[in-house]
Design a protein that fits this description.
This protein is an alpha/beta fold. It is built from 14 helices and 10 strands. It folds into 2 domains: 182 residues, Periplasmic binding protein-like II (D-Maltodextrin-Binding Protein, domain 2), CATH 3.40.190; 93 residues, Periplasmic binding protein-like II (D-Maltodextrin-Binding Protein, domain 2). It has a 5-stranded mixed β-sheet. Strands 7-6-8-5-9 form a 5-stranded mixed β-sheet, sandwiched between helices. The radius of gyration is 23 Å and the shape is globular. The termini are far apart. The N terminus is likely disordered.
């Protein structure tokens, strides 16, 4: 049957209109990392490079902080929607911060280490007793791990004097001046200090706390309540990033090295421990949560043992990438 000129024009016009119709705009979200110096947290940038966020219709703005405490302050001010931070950071929700954990990101702290200067009198872990160790911020993972080490050695929670000094540059300067005896850092920072000849790695902390969530993923209460689909899409993308890191070693090392501004040699040395501790489905461990709940009083985040429901929600995990 022959179409009239009007019908043909209408069909063509409709096709042009459909072709010209704009695609749905991506949801823009603000995502924080508690610190820059973290292999797992560098997955945010890697996910951008590989298009994982875009594939879920997400346009992420990445914001870096100098410790968990400051990131939680940003949640309190409504400045961020998601965050990647430490397990003990879950305690801030029990204090009223309007954000909670939505998935586990990494297990035991294999990516944390203690570093000292080359000429330090600290030769073994026992030499740290009674000395001053630098951490990022009060109440951060670095703070708690230092306290845990002191307790495990039988020195009590105050067996090591803890000083919060922010990023590695400030702590390294304080070690060189003698203000600090040592510093707790990511393993990549420790290896970089070693590579530059500025110090040496005294020990790693992977065996200090075998049942633990070193890192978790947070979402604001507003995001959880108003946009649960965005939360699900964010987590789907994140765990695709985790699987990519595990299955694409070379690409992961190159991306993480750029983001952390360290050498690929350093990241390659840390890689086995980093991917070993990553979670690939976000499931929470009851044992790990019990350890974290007990840690919160030590850190002064809260002065009671919060209920699990105060710290996290299991509505979104475990998931399948």
């Amino acid at each position: 049957m022959r179409q009239s000129g009007f019908t043909r024009r209408a069909v063509l016009g409709s096709g042009v209109a459909l072709a010209a119709a704009p695609a749905r705009a991506a949801d823009r979200i603000r995502v924080a990392k508690a610190v820059v110096s973290s292999f797992p947290f560098a997955g945010l940038e890697l996910g951008k490079e590989q298009g994982f966020w875009a594939a879920e219709g997400l346009d992420i703005e990445i914001i870096a902080f100098a410790g968990d405490g400051r990131m939680q302050q940003a949640f309190g001010a409504g400045g961020i929607d998601f965050g990647v931070g430490s397990g003990p950071g879950m305690g801030y929700a029990a204090k009223g911060v309007p954000a909670r954990a939505i998935a586990a990101l990494a297990g035991e702290p294999r990516n944390m280490a203690i570093v000292v200067t080359h000429n330090s009198p600290v030769k073994t872990v026992d030499d740290l007793k009674g000395r001053t160790v630098g951490v990022t911020t009060a109440g951060a993972l670095t703070d708690w791990l230092t306290r845990r080490l002191a307790v495990d050695r039988g020195w009590g929670p105050d067996g090591i004097e803890i000083t919060p000094l922010g990023d590695i540059r400030a702590r390294l300067a304080a070690m060189k001046s003698g203000e600090l005896a040592a510093s707790v850092n990511s393993i990549e920072e420790a290896l970089s200090v070693q590579e530059r000849g500025e110090g040496r790695m005294l020990l790693t902390l992977g065996d200090t706390v075998p049942d633990f969530h070193t890192h978790v993923i947070f979402a604001s209460d507003a995001m959880i309540k108003k946009s649960p689909d965005v939360v699900r899409r964010f987590l789907r993308a994140w765990f695709r990033v985790a699987v990519f890191m595990r299955d694409n070693k070379e690409a992961a090392i190159k991306s993480v090295a750029r983001t952390m501004n360290v050498s690929e040699t350093v990241v390659a040395a840390a890689y086995p421990d980093e991917v070993r501790m990553l979670s690939y489905d976000g499931a929470f461990s009851t044992k790990a949560l019990d350890v974290i709940r007990a840690s919160l009083k030590d850190l002064g985040i809260v002065y009671f043992r919060p209920e699990i429901a105060q710290m996290l929600t299991t509505d979104f995990s475990p998931i399948k990438p």
